[in-house]
Design goal:
Helix content: 25-40%
Distance between the termini: 50 Å
Number of strands: 23
Strand content: 15-25%
Largest sheet: 6 strands, antiparallel
Radius of gyration: 32 Å
Structural class: alpha+beta
C-alpha cells in the first residue's frame, strides 16, 4: 500500500493523529503533537517496512482553532489577486466582519474573479478540508457565486467545483463546503471565487471572512448578517451620465463608440436606469453584441474634430471649440448630469499645441462645467488614447496626459468634484486603433466602455451611505472545563490508573484522553519527566 502523506502513514501505523517522525529518531507532541523518545532503529525499521521516505509528503498543520488560514482584509488583499481581467481592492463600505472586505470588479468573463495560491505542502491530494467565505453582490438580482479549485502544470489545467450559493442582491451570503477532498490532479493549486460558466453574470462582488479549515469545521458566517451600503437604492435610481469630448466620444469608426459598451456593462452590473444625456444623439439605439441585439441610450456631447477651445488658424476646421459649443447649446444646465465623462485634447495634440496652453484651456472648460453642474455631481477627466497619425508619439501623449492629471488634481485638492481617469492605461496602444492610427477600433471602444463602467461603479459604491444589517445575537460564555492535573484518562480523578495509562502511552500501547492533564511539568510536552512527576504526586497523596 502506498501512503500519500505522513499523516495517513502514521495513522495506519500507530492509530494516532498528527504524528511527525524526525530523522533523528524523536516523535514529539506539543498540544496534540506527540513527544516521546523511541529507538531510532525501531522507527527506521517500521518506516522502511511500510513506505520509502521519498513517498512521504508532510501535510500542513492547522492552528489551534483548526484553521489553515483565514482572511479578513482589514489592511491588505492578503495575497488574494484578480483573476483574468478582474481587479481586487480593499473596500470599507461593505463588509461581513471587521471594517473591510475585498471588492472584485472589472470582470469581463464569468471565470474572472478573486484568487489565491494554495501551498501544496499544506493542502494534500486525497485529504479533506473545509472551505468557507462570505460573499455579497449588489446587481439587483439573485446571482450564483461559486468557489472553485484549479490544479495546473505544464501539460494543462483541471478545474473542480468546490461549492456555490445563490446570493441575493444586497445580502451577505455564506459560501461553504465543509467536506471537500483535493482531487488527484497534479500541479499548482489556485483557489478562486467566480460566477458559473455561461451564466452571463459579470457583476462585481465582495468577499470577506475567508476560512479554510480542517474537515467538518464550519465558519461562523450567517447569511443576512454583515454591513451593506445602500447600493440597492443607487441601482434602482436613474443615473444621468454625460459623455463629453471629440470624435472619440462621438464614436468615429464605430457607431456608438465606447458609449454603447458603457451602457451595456453598467446594466450588467445591475444599474437598470442609465440615462445618457447630452444635446446630440437619440434616446434609443441598438447594436449586436455577443450574438444578441442590445439597446442603449445614444445621447452625448461628442464633436468630431474639436479642440478644448476654439483655435485659429486650423485650416478648414471652422468651428471647433468644445467650450464654445457646450456654452452655445447650454448643454450642462439643460442636462444636469450626475456624472460627466470628459475626453478632450487629441486634436490639440495633432495641432501640436503647447501643453501650457492646453492647461489654461482645460481650466476654462472645467470652470464652465462646474458652474452649471449640480453641486453633488462629478467630472471625470480622462486621459487621451495613444495615436501615431499627424505626428503623434508616446512622449507627446504622455506629456499631455500628465497635464490632464495635473488639472484634475488641482481641482480635487481644492475640494472640487473632479477626478482623473486613466483611459489611456486601459488600452493596448496602437493595437487598439483603427487603420487611421487615430481612433480606437471596436476592441478599443469596448475596453473603454468597460473601463468607464468600473470607474462609475466604484464611484457610486463609495458614495453611498452605510446601512448596518448586522443581526444582534446573544452570546453565552461558558467557563472552560476544569483541568485535573494528572487525570490522563479523564475520569475526574487522579490515581494510579492515570500513571498506568501514561506508562503504556510512552511505549505506544495506549492513547491519552486528556493531553493537558498529562503535561505535569507544564512545558507543553508529554514525556518521561511527566511520568516521574506523576508518580511523585501520587506518592504524596
Amino acid at each position: 500500500m502506498v501512503y500519500k502523506n505522513i499523516k495517513t502513514f502514521v495513522q495506519s501505523l500507530f492509530k494516532k493523529t498528527n504524528i511527525f517522525i524526525r530523522k533523528w529518531g524523536f516523535i514529539k507532541m506539543k498540544k496534540g503533537v506527540l513527544k516521546k523518545i523511541i529507538s531510532a532503529g525501531t522507527t527506521a525499521a517500521m518506516i522502511t517496512a511500510c513506505i520509502s521516505a521519498s513517498a512521504i509528503q508532510a501535510a500542513g498543520v492547522p492552528d489551534s482553532n483548526g484553521n489553515y488560514f483565514t482572511n479578513s482584509f482589514e489592511s491588505s488583499t492578503e495575497n488574494w489577486s484578480g483573476r483574468g481581467s478582474a481587479s481586487v481592492n480593499i473596500n470599507n463600505r461593505n463588509y461581513y466582519d471587521g471594517s473591510n472586505s475585498l471588492y472584485v470588479s472589472g470582470r469581463e468573463a464569468e471565470w474572472n474573479g478573486a484568487s489565491i495560491a494554495l501551498d501544496s505542502s499544506m493542502f494534500v491530494i486525497g485529504e479533506t478540508y473545509s472551505f468557507s467565505a462570505a460573499v455579497l453582490q449588489t446587481s439587483g438580482k439573485d446571482v450564483t457565486i461559486q468557489m472553485s479549485l484549479q490544479q495546473s502544470n505544464e501539460d494543462g489545467a483541471s478545474y473542480t467545483h468546490i461549492t456555490d450559493c445563490t446570493a441575493k442582491s444586497g445580502e451577505w451570503t455564506k459560501l461553504e463546503n465543509t467536506e471537500f477532498t483535493i482531487p488527484a490532479n497534479s500541479g499548482d493549486m489556485v483557489l478562486y471565487i467566480e460566477t458559473p460558466e455561461a451564466s452571463g453574470d459579470l457583476c462585481s462582488f465582495y468577499i470577506d471572512a475567508i476560512q479554510v479549515s480542517t474537515s467538518g469545521k464550519p465558519s461562523s458566517v450567517v447569511t443576512g448578517q454583515g454591513v451593506v451600503s445602500n447600493t440597492s437604492s443607487s441601482n434602482d435610481s436613474t443615473i444621468k451620465i454625460m459623455p463629453i469630448g471629440d470624435s472619440i466620444t462621438f464614436g468615429l469608426g464605430e457607431t456608438g463608440g465606447y458609449r454603447k459598451y458603457l451602457n451595456y456593462f453598467l446594466n450588467q452590473k445591475g444599474y437598470s436606469k442609465v440615462d445618457m444625456v447630452g444635446p446630440e444623439g437619440t434616446n434609443s439605439a441598438s447594436f449586436n453584441y455577443n450574438g444578441k441585439s442590445v439597446s442603449y441610450d445614444d445621447n452625448h456631447a461628442g464633436y468630431s474634430g474639436f479642440t478644448i477651445k476654439q483655435q485659429y488658424p486650423i485650416p478648414s476646421w471652422g468651428e471647433n471649440g468644445l467650450y464654445e459649443r457646450l456654452k452655445s447649446k447650454n448643454a450642462i444646465k439643460q442636462a444636469q448630469p450626475d456624472i460627466v465623462l470628459l475626453i478632450i485634447g487629441t486634436n490639440d495634440m495633432t495641432a501640436n499645441r503647447p501643453t501650457s496652453e492646453c492647461e489654461k484651456d482645460l481650466h476654462t472648460l472645467i470652470d464652465y462645467i462646474l458652474a452649471d453642474l449640480p453641486s453633488d455631481s462629478i467630472i471625470f477627466m480622462g486621459s487621451i488614447p495613444e495615436f501615431t497619425a499627424y505626428g503623434g508619439n508616446p512622449q507627446r501623449i504622455a506629456n499631455y496626459n500628465s497635464t490632464v492629471k495635473k488639472v484634475a488634481d488641482d481641482y480635487s485638492s481644492s475640494g472640487k468634484n473632479v477626478k482623473f481617469a486613466d483611459v489611456h492605461g486601459c488600452l493596448n496602444g496602437a493595437y487598439d486603433l483603427t487603420d487611421d492610427n487615430l481612433h480606437p477600433n471596436g476592441t478599443g471602444y469596448e475596453k473603454m466602455g468597460k473601463f468607464w463602467a468600473n470607474v462609475i461603479d466604484e464611484y457610486i459604491i463609495a458614495s453611498q451611505p452605510v446601512v448596518t444589517t448586522t443581526t444582534t445575537t446573544t452570546t453565552t460564555t461558558t467557563a472552560p472545563p476544569q483541568i485535573i492535573i494528572g487525570d490522563t484518562n479523564s475520569d475526574g480523578v487522579f490515581n494510579v490508573a492515570d500513571v498506568v495509562m501514561l506508562s503504556k502511552w510512552l511505549i505506544s500501547s495506549e492513547s491519552i484522553t486528556d493531553w493537558e492533564s498529562g503535561d505535569i511539568n507544564a512545558d507543553n510536552f508529554i514525556d518521561i519527566f511527566d511520568l516521574v512527576m506523576m508518580k511523585r504526586l501520587l506518592l504524596e497523596q
